[in-house]
Design a protein that fits this description.
Elements lengths: L15 E12 L4 E2 L7 E6 L4 E7 L16 H9 L1 E11 L4 E9 L8 E9 L2 E5 L8 E9 L2
Antiparallel strand pairs: 1-2, 1-3, 1-9, 3-4, 4-5, 5-6, 6-7, 7-8, 8-9
């Protein structure tokens, strides 16, 4: 389904295209992780109709040697999958709770499809920081910082 969002409060402040500035994990032990490398790339889009799309890729993702994903080796496919993450769906904002929830319809990780991904948000000028609930599932809190694009 790729239709309009249903229900929920939307805010114009989220609408637009965002470029990934950083993606950092913070462990309960104080360690930081950069699962997508030191300079990850990414794009986040929110539209006024309540649709969202998220794409994050590792900074050193390599092309397939053959140039054809249907002829890639198992190692190349594994590397490509592990270094790219995306999903799409709808979103709702709860201003009072400081959360945005992504209602995932489809994703590169099939386990995400049909889930609700709640993120806490903070604003820093033209930047939007989205963080996972503390330690949800991994013991790590991930913070993705996005910068609004013109």
């Amino acid at each position: 389904m790729c239709g309009p969002a249903k229900g929920g409060q939307l805010t114009d402040r989220f609408s637009g295209t965002w470029r990934l500035v950083s993606f950092v994990g913070h462990g309960a032990d104080g360690r930081e992780t950069t699962d997508y490398g030191p300079t990850p790339r990414g794009c986040l889009m929110y539209d006024q109709g309540g649709r969202t799309s998220v794409h994050i890729t590792h900074s050193d993702r390599k092309p397939f040697k053959s140039g054809d994903p249907f002829r890639a080796s198992p190692e190349e496919l594994k590397d490509a999958f592990e270094k790219y993450f995306s999903y799409f769906g709808t979103y709702t904002v709860d201003e009072s709770a400081g959360t945005v929830t992504h209602h995932v319809e489809g994703a590169s990780n099939p386990n995400y499809a049909g889930t609700d991904q709640r993120r806490f948000f903070t604003w820093q000028g033209d930047r939007l920081a989205l963080s996972t609930p503390p330690g949800e599932g991994t013991g790590v809190t991930y913070i993705a910082t996005w910068e609004r694009q013109p």
